[in-house]
## 1
Amino acid sequence: MILVEQGQSPLILCLPHSGSDVPKAVNTRLNATGRLQADLAWRLERVFDFYKDLDMTVIRSSVSRYVIDLDKDPSTYANAPTDTAGSLCPALTLDGKRIYQDGEEPGPTEAEQRVLLFHQPFHKALLSQIDRLTRIHGRVVILDCQSMRSQIKGVTDKGLPLVNIGSLDGASCNRDLRNLFVGSFNGLEGFTIGVDEQTRGGFIAQCYGRPGQGLHCMTFLLAQRAYLRHESPPFEPDKTRIARLQSVLKDSFSRIIDWASVGAKPQAVAAISAQPDTFGQAAGQAEVDAPAPVNEATDQTANDAGPQAEVDAGMEHEIIPVDPMTLPKLPKATDAPANKNLPLQVAE
């Protein structure tokens, strides 16, 4: 299910990894490690429950990233079992442990179906909110909000800073905006900060970060020790830590909103098409190219034409209601090529 809370400010909080629902047809094939779901952004929505105070828009999915990672390119459906970081439908945990029973990993046909059921509706909903707010404000800022355990072997061996901000090295947003956000944490006791280190930005930043069109996207990754009592089941929130973090974030987000509002004019822009017309075409782009350099003074990129695929600004984006528990089990097809014309199938 896609959950959208609409606000009127120019800031969108996007939570692609906070869902935990797993369809029965997938859950019965997971092993004990997979059912633990240790790689989710557990309870992250609790951190942002002040969103109404700043009139922010929040969009999230109830579906687990073990079913599909909404911050991955949908064209990468033919996953290599050893590719933990780049897997659209992961078969391993971030530290390389198997999450499926032997021989039960999803194949390309099943991955394609998961894209149709979960990935496309999420990005259509996000695109709809971007279009709505751009018409109101002219500038829109997207925060791709994520969290992960502080210690993951092979991933955070050097230690995960409490706050991690990614901007594709300054290409997915205005650098002044990035510095403003980073600066809101500087000097705060107990806050360590990483910039374009642990995270540079994933598919969401690559797809929607278009500073030249007034769309600015930053990845905001929190170490879970910032708001959880323990980074293990049942992933219990710590009210004291959350309250302290929220007091900082309210100030940080207020600065972002003020920055986006100053000098911006409402405009109708060609919306970014986040949906492939046919499976395997990534987010309105044949390929995700390296972002063009940003002119910090004007918010303009060297390539002001934007994404390779655009849709009319007035296009209505259909949001398909999805019940994540209705995903049918497909025949095993781990070695079969994906069926490009696979229909959307929902069990009765």
Note: The chain has seven helices and eleven strands.
## 2
Amino acid sequence: MQKSSIYWLSVSILFVFLSCSSNTTEQEKNAPKPTAQEKLKSSNTLDTADYERRMAYISNGDTTGTWPVKTPYPLPGAIFPYNRVIAYYGNLYSKKMGILGELPKDEMLAKLKGEIKQWEAADSTIPVKAALHYVAVTAQTNGGKQRMRMPSHQIDSIVNWAKEIDALVFLDIQVGWSTLEEEIPALEKYLKMPQVHLGIDPEFSMKFGDLPGTRIGTFDATDINYAIRYLDTLTRNNNLPPKVLVVHRFTQGMVTNAAQIKPMATVQVVIDMDGWGDRILKRSTWLRYIQKDPVQFGGFKIFYKNDLKKGAGILYTPAELMKFTPHPIYIQYQ
């Protein structure tokens, strides 16, 4: 081949290469920029400095050294502390169990969106994520194990409703005379979904043979750690983002040996202050069982009706709860 032919062939190849490079650059330039959460999910490593800064923020100036709690760093894709979750709680069989079930779907979702706007106004620092917290196993006063599992079509409805507003789903378990070892695996097909998380309610864990509702039940750290290990295995085996475990609490005895609860990189633990009553009572319950007895993250429940019984006054507002130490990162409305 003559030198001139070689020269023009080289020029042509270079032109094609530059054209392709130019097109790729234009496509990259015009592509939507990933959000911080998307970057986190796509990364194999966690920005630990950013995580610690966010944890310090939600600790709200704690000077006792209690908050933030020293736990393993989460794997990428974790919900907390990158989001605040606002959840509606209830069951579709009962209008008395919570706002989820009390109102028609569209009215309920619209009301939830209204609460989210208030939280966004109270704290623009943390993105707010909606959630539907559905009691999938309810304690009963009859039946062999004093509990009833909800039919799959109901859980499917909740999952589909959540998709309409890009919400998370929490499936809550009231074991009655059953156990977490028996009830959690029964929900595995749902817990394999990346947007579905778990709640467990010690109030209805009747370890001593009492009927649900006749006394307050209990879970020990060993029970809660079983749930954590189960979710850890499920998450790792199915390549899922970290799960959240919500544990309800409003008395000392509901959660025994809380200091021995072991969150993992794959499982984030929220202790949800579940008591109802006037504002003074709720704040004192928060101080005793959340602020002074830390596990990992703090949650706060608001009862639309029960918190107003006996002339209790008005409900806590998002702005008022933002003054709590630590900040509630999971807020549940019932």
Note: Residues 46-333 form a domain with the TIM Barrel fold (CATH 3.20.20).
## 3
Amino acid sequence: MDVSTVEDALGLTFEDKTLLQSALTHRSYLNENPNYPLEDNERLEFLGDAVLDFVIGEYVYHRFPAKDEGTLTSLRAALVCARALAEFANQIDLGNYLLLGRGEDEAGGRKRPAVLCGAFEALVGALYLDRGLSSVSAFILPRFEPALDHILRNNLDKDAKSLLQELSQAYLGYTPRYPTIDTRGPDHDKVFTVAVTIHGVTHGKGQGRSKQLAAQVAAAEALEQLRAMLSAPVVHVPDGPDFDIPDPEGSFPR
């Protein structure tokens, strides 16, 4: 890993370069390179998750002084959910700099939301240890503020499953179901595939490192599909002789 190239690309400078290296090291790389001297990014991911909760919690607390605890919690959850963090990782091309095992890389790990989310959290954890909270805030808030405005404009502070259930029950009269349709990988690295069905019809599928995450991804896909269906224009075909089928002689009714 060329650390200086990664720092330039991310716009960050680390005093302890090994923190950045660890943040970008997926466990699959260590599985194939057991003599690699650094640990993988899972401990930093754990720390970064807590740091993000605090920084974003403080941000929404000060930005919305009149909102209650439940609303603030929903806003924070929408900003730090796995899908949002994976998108932030994509915005900075974080997947390009990850150390992955060959199998994970060939399986599309650089674009897998769970991998990207974990790497982003690990990067935040590493930055916190190296530079402190102020540097974390300076790095993430310019990215999170536009996302928060988008969430507020589109009423996305509820999770996808909740929004889908409200929409499905209101317009279709059915409650979505979430069957698990596939489970792959070893016990320490399982990937679940979950479908979302409404009245027996599949409207979306999602993958994740937990059934809950996979269900949220599936619900988001179904939500997009259902919204498009409900907003589509209705075409009314008029009745009448102009739309009758011609008789065998080729003449039209008068």
Note: The domain at 161-231 is CATH 3.30.160.20 (Double Stranded RNA Binding Domain).
